[in-house]
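Exercise: predict the fold of this chain.
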Amino acid sequence: MPHTAGGRKRKAPQDGREPRRYERHWKVERYFAWLRFFRRLVTRYEVKAENVLGFLHLACARILMRQF
């Protein structure tokens, strides 16, 4: 079954497999969207890069903990 993107039809791959790249791409984009909910990361109040990286790790851990 051909995929549609913006009203255009794409050809199916010659070997008949479904493209999986979009699924992985969606996961990454969704993860970055979840990170935007953490105001401290978006506005970058911290001066030192180590502090920003620490808050990024905390945000990632919090996002992953939501899955359980």
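Check your answer against the key: The first strand starts at residue 4 and ends at 5.
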